[in-house]
């Protein structure tokens, strides 16, 4: 430890952690230090570049607060969130795949009866969503708790915009449902639209410098919880979206892409008669037994 | 990009940066993403662990302000600062080695004449420091700008404690000098003591979890600027310090360790007569011609 130089520093840092009493923490930190140092060596990081990185992380920290999490955004756009999601959610073939959670989930969203309009004032063309939740063996799963959340026609989630006179509800285009005795669900909402991730901060500047856009393809978020099964957190993506091949957070899996079908005004799947054109989406979920 | 999974995610992120117009930025980010993903794969990072990392970085960001830089502290304790310093400051044999800058430098410290007492009220046993600054060929360097800064007997830098009634000066135990026509310098200050890096924040908690202490061996900081030579930022460490083998920020190089010699009250090197015991340090610097 007295002879620290470019060649000995990594070993010195690892040796300093020899007394760590938490084996898992030690494993993680040993690996982190090795890869961090390998990176700095590989690119021959300069002192100026190091300082820019310090300033960048400082800016990420300072824009982060209770409603904005720029570190998660950074993890998302670097593909780390998707990697961690993927390597912790391997499922047997036939199960619905998981994807990133995202920053816009809200605990304890309003509960709705099947068939309800969860838009709750959010703007957009009407969309009827339906499907079935099954176990891997094909058995329909009754009473599955389903959380759904999505952005509105302007690409905003309710949490990004406080209620207004025309949109007085705090919770818009999000809700909780339960599947019926045959595992079926259906609800009304609005058509999902592509949206940019928050890009007025340091992560947005980084994307711009990298020649990347901040857009995500249109999607609905789902979280499904059924007794005896792994919890599933995923999206359903709208087919033909222009951003399916360049999702800013790398969340797209081809099995999660589904057709949203446009219908002229007239009878809807729930028996109602729609006065405006409307959309339908049908998607079935298969959960992994525990 | 529609078929993102554990195996394809890294390549997808790299492909997304293909449009980057800044080649150096792209090189850095390509390497960063690869090493970051390798780390997450190697340790099979879980979603819980990922979230703890997000919370840790958030805490590091929130404690960082104008006078406290927890990201630099984090870089220091992970050995990254030393690695970056070392790989950017390789010098020919015979030159004084560089080490980490640290967070306690202050621009435009007070200027002192050679022989002055730069303690300026900082507490500690008196110490007389002297030496010579030379070029690699042995030629003495006159008029070299020398910044020196150090902690006091309690292990604090002036910037960590506002002035008080008994210590009314803002700048204590720091100053700027110039070498004389023979390249010599000398000044009076106080004996350097070991000190802990700030450890009441997330980095301190991390060190504790890793079984590491926050202490640095006693040292003086120097920055030397001479025409026609590379700027040198370094420390001189006090020999026999108990932390020389476990510096929390990995800054020690054996060539930078020097003896501090204790003397009983009596005549000092500058011709004065000291009424208390005092210390002397002699250290010569060799600068690298540009
Ligand atoms: Cu690596
Ligand atoms: Fe989303
Ligand atoms: Fe220091």
From TrEMBL, chains A, B:
<dbReference type="GO" id="GO:0051213">
    <property type="term" value="F:dioxygenase activity"/>
</dbReference>
<keyword id="KW-0479">Metal-binding</keyword>
<dbReference type="Pfam" id="PF04444">
    <property type="entry name" value="Dioxygenase_N"/>
</dbReference>
<keyword id="KW-0223">Dioxygenase</keyword>
<comment type="similarity">
    <text>Belongs to the intradiol ring-cleavage dioxygenase family.</text>
</comment>
<dbReference type="InterPro" id="IPR039390">
    <property type="entry name" value="1_2-HQD/HQD"/>
</dbReference>
<dbReference type="Pfam" id="PF00775">
    <property type="entry name" value="Dioxygenase_C"/>
</dbReference>
<dbReference type="InterPro" id="IPR007535">
    <property type="entry name" value="Catechol_dOase_N"/>
</dbReference>
<keyword id="KW-0408">Iron</keyword>
<dbReference type="InterPro" id="IPR015889">
    <property type="entry name" value="Intradiol_dOase_core"/>
</dbReference>
<protein>
    <submittedName>
        <fullName>Intradiol ring-cleavage dioxygenase</fullName>
    </submittedName>
</protein>
<feature type="domain" description="Intradiol ring-cleavage dioxygenases">
    <location>
        <begin position="129"/>
        <end position="157"/>
    </location>
</feature>
<keyword id="KW-0560">Oxidoreductase</keyword>
<feature type="region of interest" description="Disordered">
    <location>
        <begin position="154"/>
        <end position="176"/>
    </location>
</feature>
<dbReference type="InterPro" id="IPR000627">
    <property type="entry name" value="Intradiol_dOase_C"/>
</dbReference>
<dbReference type="InterPro" id="IPR050770">
    <property type="entry name" value="Intradiol_RC_Dioxygenase"/>
</dbReference>
């Amino acid at each position: 430890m007295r002879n620290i130089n470019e060649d000995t520093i990594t070993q010195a840092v690892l040796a300093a952690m020899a007394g760590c009493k938490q084996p898992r923490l030690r494993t993680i930190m040993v690996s982190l230090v090795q890869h961090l140092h390998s990176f700095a060596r590989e690119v021959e990081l300069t002192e100026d570049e190091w300082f820019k990185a310090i300033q960048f992380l400082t800016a990420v920290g300072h824009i982060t607060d209770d409603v904005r999490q720029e570190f998660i955004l950074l993890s998302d756009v670097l593909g780390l969130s998707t990697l961690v999601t993927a390597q912790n959610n391997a499922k047997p073939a036939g199960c619905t795949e998981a994807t990133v959670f995202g920053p816009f989930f809200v605990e304890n969203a309003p509960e709705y009866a099947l068939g309800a309009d969860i838009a709750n004032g959010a703007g957009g063309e009407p969309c009827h969503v339906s499907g079935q939740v099954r176990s891997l063996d094909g058995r329909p799963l009754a009473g599955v708790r389903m959380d759904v959340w999505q952005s509105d026609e302007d690409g905003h989630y309710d949490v990004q915009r406080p209620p207004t006179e025309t949109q007085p509800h705090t919770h818009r285009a999000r809700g909780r449902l339960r599947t019926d005795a045959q595992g079926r669900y259906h609800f009304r909402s609005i058509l999902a639209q592509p949206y940019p991730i928050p890009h007025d901060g340091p992560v947005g500047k980084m994307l711009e410098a990298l020649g990347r856009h901040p857009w995500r393809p249109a999607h609905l978020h789902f979280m499904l919880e059924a007794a005896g099964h792994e919890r599933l957190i995923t999206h359903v993506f709208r087919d033909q979206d222009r951003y399916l091949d360049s999702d800013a957070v790398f969340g797209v899996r081809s099995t999660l892409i589904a057709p949203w079908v446009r219908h002229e005004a007239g009878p809807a799947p729930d028996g109602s008669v729609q006065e405006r054109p409307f959309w339908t989406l049908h998607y079935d979920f298969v959960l992994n037994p525990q």
